[in-house]
Amino acid sequence: MTSPSIVWFRDDLRLADHPALRAALDRGEPVIGLYVLDEESDGIRPLGGAARWWIHHSLAALADDLREHGSTLVLRRGRAGDVVRSVIEDAGAGAIFWNRRYGGAERTIDADLKDGLREGGVEVRSFAANVLFEPWTVTTGSGTPFSVFTPFWNAARHLPAPREPLPKPREIPGVRSAPAGDALEDWELLPTAPDWAGGLRERWVPGEHAARARLRTFLDDDLGTYDAARDEPSAGATSLLSPRLRWGELSPHTVWHAGVETGGGTGAGATSASRFLSELGWREFAWHTLYHFPDLATKNWRKGFDAFPWPQLDPDHLVAWEKGETGIPLVDAGMRELWHTGYMHNRVRMVTASFLTKNLLIDWRLGEQWFWDTLVDADGASNAFNWQWVAGSGADAAPYFRIFNPERQAERFDPKGLYIGQWAPDSAEREPIVDLRATRAAALEAYEAVKRAR
C-alpha cells in the first residue's frame, strides 16, 4: 500500500527549482500538490485585491502544469495547521515537504506542524528555496543582523555562491484518487462587482511558463541597458520580474544564475548585470530584515522614529493620493499606473511614497496598506521594508532630510513627459493639493522631533 507524499505549495508556485517537490519525487511515492488559502491563522495577513487576482491565475496555471505532469493540486481554505493535518489524514500520506517561509506567523505555523506531525510518524522536511541565503547565515562579526545594505551584501557575496537551480521534472506520478478539494472559482478571488481588473489582464499573464518567458526576454533585450535606463519609467528597461519572484513562479536562484550567465564578461553589459543582481540582493536584505523583525509592516524599525509627530490625518489628501489626483504630475502618473496595472515603476514608487510621508505628512503605514491592496508584487518583506526606507524609519533608511522633489524627479527621469503623458496627461491642469516647498520645510521641522529623541 502506498503512502503518498504531499508537497505544500506556498509562495513557490512553480515546478522548476522546487526542492520540496524534488524531495517528494526522490521518496519514490505518488505526489499530491496542496495549496492552502489561509486567512484565519493568527498573524496571517489577508491578501490584497490585486494579489488575489494574481494568485487565482497562478494557481490555475500550476494546477494545469501538475495535471500535465501526472499529478494534481488540491485546494483547501482555512487555518493551515488544521487543513494540512486533515489532508494528510485523508490521503493517508506518509510525508509532507515544503519550502521555507520567513515571516513570524508563518514560521510559527510551520514549526508547530513539524513538531506535531513528526510525533505522529509523518516525515516532514523543509527546504531553502525562496531566498539566495538563509537569514541566519548573513550576520555581522558579532552575530547580529545587518542594518545597512552595502556591508550586508558584501558579507553575503563572500558566502558560497547560490546553488544551481534544479531542473523541472519530466513526470510527477500522482494518486488514483486525490483528497477532495475546493474549486478555485469558489474562492471568489477575482473582482466582479465591479470588475476593476481589465488593466491587470492587459499587462500580465501569471504562471510559471509566462514567468520564464519574461525572464528570457529581459535577459535578451534589456539587461545590457539596465544600469543606464532602469530609472526612466518610460524606457521599459526594468525586468518586471518582481511579481514572478513574489509568487515564486521563478526562484531567485534561477534568476541569479541566468543573470550571471548572460551578463558575464566586461563592459556595460557586465555593469548592468551586476546592478541587476544587486537588486536581488536588496530583496534578500528585505527578507532578512523581516526574519529578524517580524513586525515590519506595523512598527517602526528605528525605535526613535516613534517620536515622529504625525499630524491629524487629512482624509481628502489621502484619497487624492490614492486616486492620482494630487495635481503633482509624476505622483499622479504613478498612482494611476498602479491602479490600472497593479504595478508601478520603482523610481516612481519612491517618489509617490516620499510625497505621501514627507509632503502630505501621512503615516507610512497607510501608504503601505494601499500598496498591499493594489500591487500584484506586494509581499510581506519588500513592501513594508521599502516604505520604511523612504519614510526614514527603516533599515539603511534614506536620511530624514532626503525628500524626493517630484518635479525635479520628472525633469531628470521623464524629461520628455512620456510617462506622465501616458498616465496623467491632465494632472498639470490641476491645482496641486499642497505646496512642495512649504511642506518640505514642515517635514524637516517634524523630523527634528526624531533627532531629539535619539
From TrEMBL:
Single GO term (MF): deoxyribodipyrimidine photo-lyase activity
Site entry (Electron transfer via tryptophanyl radical), positions: 310, 364, 387
Keywords: Chromophore, FAD, Flavoprotein, Lyase
Family: Belongs to the DNA photolyase family.
Protein name in UniProt: Deoxyribodipyrimidine photo-lyase
Record has Cell division as a keyword: no
GO biological process terms on file: nucleobase-containing compound metabolic process; response to light stimulus; response to stress
Cofactor (UniProt): FAD
Stored InterPro entries: Crypto/Photolyase_FAD-like_sf, Crypto/Photolyase_N_sf, Cryptochr/Photolyase_FAD-bd, Cryptochrome/DNA_photolyase_1, DNA_photolyase_1_CS_C, DNA_photolyase_N, Rossmann-like_a/b/a_fold
